[in-house]
Amino acid sequence: MTTRAVLLLSGGMDSATTGAIAREQGFELYALSFRYGQRHAIELDAARKVAGALGVARHAILDIDLAAFGGSALTAGIDVPKDRPLAAMAAAIPVTYVPARNTIFLSFALSWAETLDASDLFIGANAIDYSGYPDCRPEFLRAFEAMARLGTKMGTEGHAITIHAPLIGMTKGVIIETGRALGVDFALTRTCYDPNALGEACGRCDACQLRLKGFAEAGLRDPAPYVRAS
C-alpha cells in the first residue's frame, strides 16, 4: 500500500525539491498551497505547474487572509528590502517574516493529513541559506511534532506524526543540485518576493539573492525570468 504524505508547496525551488525527494522515497503526495494575501501570488501559478510535474494525487489551494493582520512586507504596504548583503539576512528577523506562517500552514497540513490517514508532512524549511525566520529552525519543527502527538486523534492513538524537512541543513547550491538530480524543472518555480506585473523576478530581494547565489554555486543559470536592468 502506498504511504500518503502532505506536501506544503509554495511554488518555489525549495518546496519543489522537497516534493521530488518525497516522491523518490515512494510517498503518494497531497500538495497544499495557500492564497494568504501575499503580494507575490504569482507563486501559486508556479505551484500548480510544479504539482503537475510531481504527479501529485491532489493539489489543494486554500484561501486564508493573513493580509487582514498585516505585519509583514509580504502581506502589507511595507517595502520589500532590496540589495541587502547576504551576511545581514540571518542577523535579524526581516520584515518579510509573516507572523506564525509556518505554524498556520503546518496546522492546515496536519488537519488534512488526519483525514487522509497520513502521518507524514513535508516542508521545504531550510536553516542554512535562509532569511532568519524562526519557524524554519529544526527545534520549531520538533516542537510542532510534539504538539501534533498531543493534539490529534492520530497522535493520542499512538501513530507518530513526522515532519520531514529534508533541506534543513542544505545550502541553496546543494538544494539545486539535489533537485536537478531528481528531475526538478526549476523553470517552473518562482521565488521572488516582489515580482513585477509580468511575473518577472526583481533579482534584488533576499529570496532572489539567495536563489541566484545557489545557482551560481551549482554552476548553473537560473531559468526563472528576471527584470532586465535598464
Largest beta sheet: what is the strand line-up?
3-2-1-4-5
Query: Which CATH C-level class is it?
Result: Alpha Beta
What ranges have pLDDT less than 50 throughout 5 or more consecutive residues? Answer: none
Biggest sheet overview: 5 strands, parallel
CATH structural fold name: Rossmann fold
| Mean pLDDT across every amino acid position | 94
Helix proportion of residues, in percent?
A: 25-40%
* SSE string, helices as H and strands as E: EHEHEHHEHHEHH
The quaternary state of the protein chains shown equals single chain
CATH superfamily: HUPs
Q: What is the count of DSSP helices, taking H or I runs of 4+ residues?
A: 8
Query: What is the CA-based Rg, rounded?
Result: 17 Å
Count of beta strands: 5
Structural class: alpha/beta
**CATH arch. level architecture:** 3-Layer(aba) Sandwich
Count of all domains: 1
Quote the distance from N terminus to C terminus. Answer: 55 Å
Envelope shape: globular
Strand content: 5-15%
Descriptive report:
This protein has 230 residues and is of the alpha/beta class. It has one domain: HUPs (Rossmann fold, 3-Layer(aba) Sandwich), CATH 3.40.50.620. The protein contains eight helices and five strands; from the N terminus they run βαβαβααβααβαα. A five-stranded parallel sheet has the order 3-2-1-4-5, sandwiched between helices. Helix 1 packs parallel to helix 2. The N and C termini lie far apart (55 Å). The relative contact order is 0.18. The model has no long low-confidence stretch (mean pLDDT 94).
